[in-house]
Amino acid sequence: ALDFTHSDADWGIFVRIEPGGSRTIVFVYVDDFLIAAKTQKIIDSVRDGLKASYRMTDIGPVSSVLGVKIEKVDNGFALSQGHYIDTVLERFDMADCRPESTPIAVGTKLVPEGVPLGPEDTKLYQALVGCLMWLYICTRLDLGYGVSALSRFCGAPTEEHLKYAKRVLRNVKATRDLALVLAPVKVDGEPELVGYSDADWAGNVEDRRSQSGYVFKLYGATVSWGSLRQNCVSLSSTESEYVALTEAIKDAIWLRTAVLAYDQSAPDAVRIVLHGDNQGSIDLAQNPGWHRRTKHIDLRYHFVRWQVEEGAVKLQYIDTAEQAADILTKPTPTPVFVKHRASLGLIDLAARA
User: Fold this and answer.
1) Phi-psi category of 202—alpha, beta or left, where left has phi over 0 and alpha has psi -120 to 50?
2) Reverse transcriptase Ty1/copia-type domain location, by residue (predicted)?
3) How is the chain split into domains, by residue range?
4) What are the φ and ψ backbone dihedral angles of 326, each rounded to 5 degrees?
């Protein structure tokens, strides 16, 4: 037996502790396997053990996973999807389209009303949004707001929605060579999940729900992100930021479980530090006595307060100009968008070469 146990964070991840204390990890997705270990000897042993039970092909050192290209760069790895982008551009007849500097223009408000698409164009729209979603999930977190906004209309898209979806694809063409660079920075002491949480209050004009956005880094490398419409209508920007903090912390708790599967630290040694640019929401989380201001807020969103009280999460204020999660909540001007995109590790490798 290979003596692996599945990770509590994901049943497709299997972990084994080696005699020397290092950890060997096997990632499984359908019929694809990826083995990570301290030495090549351990990798070979695991591979041979798997071959004894399964019919499989060894394709050597990893160069791509699920269509995501993996390259070794200085002090880390770069994840990119240039080939997939080329395929998508050809599929939707946009290989020669005019490029755009941002996915969604500042001031754009997507609404349900408009000229509905016919059956064929509806399928086209759904397929295009699905392709953009895959890019966003794997490497292109900068597409988060656009993908989140467009996906809400897949059931009944209009001509305007298709136009905006194609604009996002034009931005993808312009940024084909962007790669998510994972170059961990060595830190003293315990590992730390550093997050950024933001919200655009009442930004959705059809229902006035707010948009949340968050990003998490581990050892300085971006490892998780999200852009989603909130499930409630907030009565103030402070309240919308408070709700956004809760959504971010939920993801952070899962991330901590995942980190503990790979790291040898004690469970309480993974610190979570979450940055927000709204002091009022931070005060709400740290001051349970503000009953008048919080009594109407759904109980589930006070999860953030409990996590802070338990010491599981530390909240820190950050200036709005440095709030990297801003680009996941709304359209932003090109200079702001490019600045935050780079700070999150999305780098044009072709331009840097």
Assistant:
1) left
2) 2-104
3) 5-62, 80-178, 185-346
4) -55, -40
Q: What are the pLDDT digits (tens) for 20-31? A: 888 999 999 998
Which DSSP helix (H) or strand (E) runs through 86?
helix 82-91
Report d(CA 114, CA 96) in Å as an integer.
28
Q: Name which of 226, 86, 89, 114 is nearest 166 in CA terms.
A: 89
Residue 293: pLDDT band with limits 50, 70, 90: low
Q: Among 168, 246, 237, which Cα is nearest to 214's?
A: 246
Backbone φ and ψ for 186, nearest 5 degrees, come out as -70, 130
Task: Give the per-residue pLDDT at 290.
Answer: 57
> Are the C-beta atoms of 104 and 168 separated by less than 8 Å?
yes
How far apart (Å, rounded) are the C-alpha atoms in residues 346 and 103?
15
Length of the chain counted residue by residue: 353
The CA distance from 341 to 344, in Å, is 5
User: Which neighbouring-strand residues pair with 215?
Assistant: 196, 225
Percent of the chain whose predicted confidence (pLDDT) is above 90: 75
Residue holding tokens 């042993």?
45
DSSP class per residue in 133-192: HHHHHHT-GGGHHHHHHHHTTTTS-BHHHHHHHHHHHHHHHHTTTEEEEE-----SSS-E
Per-residue pLDDT at 291 exceeds 60: no
Q: CA-to-CA distance for 245 and 234, rounded, in angstroms?
A: 13
Helices 237-262 & 279-286, crossing angle to 10 degrees?
A: 70
List, for residues 140-157, the tens digit of each pLDDT value. 999 999 999 999 999 999
Residue 194 backbone phi and psi in degrees, to 5:
-110, 120
Q: What is the pLDDT of residue 284?
A: 85
Token pair in block for residue 112:
């349900």
Distance CA(140)–CA(327), nearest Å, equals 12
Q: Which is the CATH superfamily of the domain at 185-346? A: Ribonuclease H-like superfamily/Ribonuclease H (3.30.420.10)
Cα 185 to Cα 174: distance, rounded to the nearest angstrom:
29
Joined tokens for residue 13: 């991840």
Query: What pTM does this model have?
Result: 0.93
